[in-house]
Amino acid sequence: MTFIESLQAAWTRNDSLLCVGLDPDPAKFPVHLQGRNDAIFEFCRSIVDATADLACCFKPQIAYFAARRAEDQLEALIAHIRITHPGIPVILDAKRGDIGSTAEQYAVEAFERYGADAVTANPYMGRDSVEPYLAYRNKGVILLCRTSNPGGSDLQFLDVGGGVKLYEHVARLVAEEWNGNGQCALVVGATFPAEIARVRALTGDMPLLVPGIGAQGGDIEATVKAGRSAAGSGLMINSSRAILYAGKDENFADAARRVAAETRDAINRFR
């Protein structure tokens, strides 16, 4: 199955638009995991196993692994998801962006080394910097559009002519010219529901990865109402810290499951 097909199946099977972000910070791990050489893998594996039936996808953020020389644990984690929870797609959150020859290597890293089903990428170097990812037709390419951080407005809200904002130009460009294989999605932050609605209007039913609920304060109701597709899906609403660190002791995975279930159900109330 392609990334989009797997995502659509997970939306239906798990009745979920929740994306569980995997941003492991060992300083926040329960005491019984601290100091272990495999602590990052064990922490994330426990979260994954506790929430797999509540999520439409998982999104490990590569920096949290690479900064601690834990790329081998990231490989093991993605392999675990593929074997133990087949059908739940994995998005490698890397936000890569570089010239074509370098992008080719980043694509190999994401799709062949790690075995991810999709990768986040930066579109601001243009189509040739994205084409190496698009060459993997069964994989997803999720492009930054209107990000959740306050500084995103510095560039993304610039008028590029005729009253069109840069993020709107990106949304239309991806939907109309770059998505020939039907594999693209866009990142639009939950902190900007009006822009989510605008991107949805510009892109039809293209999937949207929406960070910013939970710790970043995005409103679930506003996010879902602005971004849902005509079928009541079309979203991967990411929550990371609120789920990962819901518990502080050996029962942390149970606490994560409880918060994930509450978040999924809150999202579903507004579909």
Automatic annotation (TrEMBL):
<keyword id="KW-0665">Pyrimidine biosynthesis</keyword>
<dbReference type="GO" id="GO:0044205">
    <property type="term" value="P:'de novo' UMP biosynthetic process"/>
</dbReference>
<feature type="domain" description="Orotidine 5'-phosphate decarboxylase">
    <location>
        <begin position="17"/>
        <end position="256"/>
    </location>
</feature>
<dbReference type="GO" id="GO:0004590">
    <property type="term" value="F:orotidine-5'-phosphate decarboxylase activity"/>
</dbReference>
<dbReference type="Pfam" id="PF00215">
    <property type="entry name" value="OMPdecase"/>
</dbReference>
<dbReference type="GO" id="GO:0006207">
    <property type="term" value="P:'de novo' pyrimidine nucleobase biosynthetic process"/>
</dbReference>
<dbReference type="InterPro" id="IPR018089">
    <property type="entry name" value="OMPdecase_AS"/>
</dbReference>
<keyword id="KW-0456">Lyase</keyword>
<dbReference type="InterPro" id="IPR013785">
    <property type="entry name" value="Aldolase_TIM"/>
</dbReference>
<comment type="pathway">
    <text>Pyrimidine metabolism; UMP biosynthesis via de novo pathway; UMP from orotate: step 2/2.</text>
</comment>
<dbReference type="InterPro" id="IPR011060">
    <property type="entry name" value="RibuloseP-bd_barrel"/>
</dbReference>
<keyword id="KW-0210">Decarboxylase</keyword>
<dbReference type="InterPro" id="IPR011995">
    <property type="entry name" value="OMPdecase_type-2"/>
</dbReference>
<comment type="similarity">
    <text>Belongs to the OMP decarboxylase family. Type 2 subfamily.</text>
</comment>
<feature type="active site" description="Proton donor">
    <location>
        <position position="95"/>
    </location>
</feature>
<dbReference type="InterPro" id="IPR001754">
    <property type="entry name" value="OMPdeCOase_dom"/>
</dbReference>
<protein>
    <recommendedName>
        <fullName>Orotidine 5'-phosphate decarboxylase</fullName>
        <ecNumber>4.1.1.23</ecNumber>
    </recommendedName>
</protein>
